[in-house]
């Protein structure tokens, strides 16, 4: 079976590797996004999928627009039986969807129809769900609306960040895509329609969504910090002298003992910086990064910044 792989981000790397190393499938080509500028030097960097494909000695195609006439012609030349798509970043046209002789599979990091869209992993953590999973669907023209081939649940741990959950789901996705290809070869691959009435969407995250509202409950803020680690990273503001600085927060521990106004620093010790939240309790800041500085333990930050008890984080200008 000839399998063309289409993807860009880290999420698809275990799946590409699993298909390539399985030995029962031919990968005539891997399609990924063009190299993008990164960092202050604007150095062109390949996508994680391109790096993985080159290590596996696979041919790589990087169209600016996968739906262009030239791209369609190139994909047709590869004569795929199946196309596997994972975390690509472009919507496939009807013409592309019709190229493979069997169909196109998509690996999605949620239990569809829940959390269709760009950020299902972050949404599951932020909404304090107990479980999530991976779904393999037969792609259609909608966004994550195709029939389900298979899915499997995964429990969300209390300390999961978007990064740790992403990595576990990516490994699960690799196992499910191999199972899916096996089912197709055996002629036993189901097509289970999604219940569209149960659909929800996890749209692309914007940086400003990561601003912490200290009046919220401690569990909500903890979930937000974990959901936005490693990107865009939850943050608050802090006045140092006459300047207002951004303080990114990477790791916190829920505390039931904090007593103070929302955002108030109520304790500083070797364990970190304890900040009061809305209702009862607060959060012990453990790992932070002040604007223009390196990431560090919150206790070291507090000492270097001469942070005082009673400081209000996230204080508005008019307060």
From TrEMBL:
Residues 1-180 form the Formyl transferase N-terminal domain. It catalyses: L-methionyl-tRNA(fMet) + (6R)-10-formyltetrahydrofolate = N-formyl-L-methionyl-tRNA(fMet) + (6S)-5,6,7,8-tetrahydrofolate + H(+). It comes from the Bacteria. Residues 204-305 form the Formyl transferase C-terminal domain. (6S)-5,6,7,8-tetrahydrofolate binds at residues 110-113. The keyword Transmembrane does not apply. The keyword Transferase applies. InterPro entries: Fmt, Formyl_trans_C, Formyl_trans_C_sf, Formyl_transf_N, Formyl_transf_N_sf, Formyl_transferase-like_C_sf, GART_AS, Met-tRNA-FMT_C. Its EC number is 2.1.2.9. NCBIfam families: fmt. Belongs to the Fmt family. This is Methionyl-tRNA formyltransferase.
